[in-house]
Design goal:
S-adenosylmethionine decarboxylase; 3 helices; alpha+beta; six-stranded antiparallel beta sheet; 6 strands; homodimer
Chain lengths: 117, 117
């Protein structure tokens, strides 16, 4: 399992980015991961801000924006341990602008490998 | 921000738990957090397994089950730093059974406090 998190501040373009644009960037992240998109959910907030969820066959990608603070939280969680989340997340980062202020990998319980089952 | 993760193995009841039951437990977790549920997404997999997403006004809760391995990954992510995720997650843990094999808090970029803005 890979669970990569990217928290972005000073997001210059977060207010302009539409939920549809964010979801499109997330689909591109999915493609770059070599993962399979299964379903989508967009929840918008007033006066602004959005949570976009892309459920993958491999787990999920979530982007939550807080335009009032110029912040965004990004989770890229995949059971494909051969994926490259740092490369795949770039379309999201480029759309939102800003600086990755905090990035990390979350230690998650791995799925057993076939040999270990 | 609090981003708590709970990875569960030896889930005795994960095969029996329906997606609707899992989502009901997640709604109860939301209530115990003192958070507000905004939208839901359930994605089921064949022959089994489900990803349930509950988008909150405060961020999100995600449960992904891997019944073939007796595993589940649970994320409880909220901008309410006065929430108690360890208490609030209990309905989900009780539904799925099993043992929390890995629990932790993910370091996320905080929202500025009003005084800091």
């Amino acid at each position: 399992m890979i669970h990569a998190v990217y928290d972005i501040n000073n997001c210059k373009r977060v207010v302009q980015a539409s939920p549809a644009q964010i979801m499109a960037a997330m689909r591109e992240t999915c493609r770059l991961l070599g993962n399979t998109a299964r379903s989508e959910l967009i929840e918008t907030f007033q006066p602004h801000g959005v949570t976009c969820v892309l459920v993958l066959a491999e787990s999920h990608i979530v982007v939550t924006t807080w335009p009032e603070f110029g912040l965004a939280h990004v989770d890229v969680f995949t059971c494909r341990s051969d994926s490259d989340p740092d490369g795949a997340v770039r379309p999201i980062l480029e759309l939102l602008g800003g600086t990755v202020a905090l990035a990390g990998r979350v230690n998650r319980l791995a799925l057993p490998t076939p040999a270990a089952v």
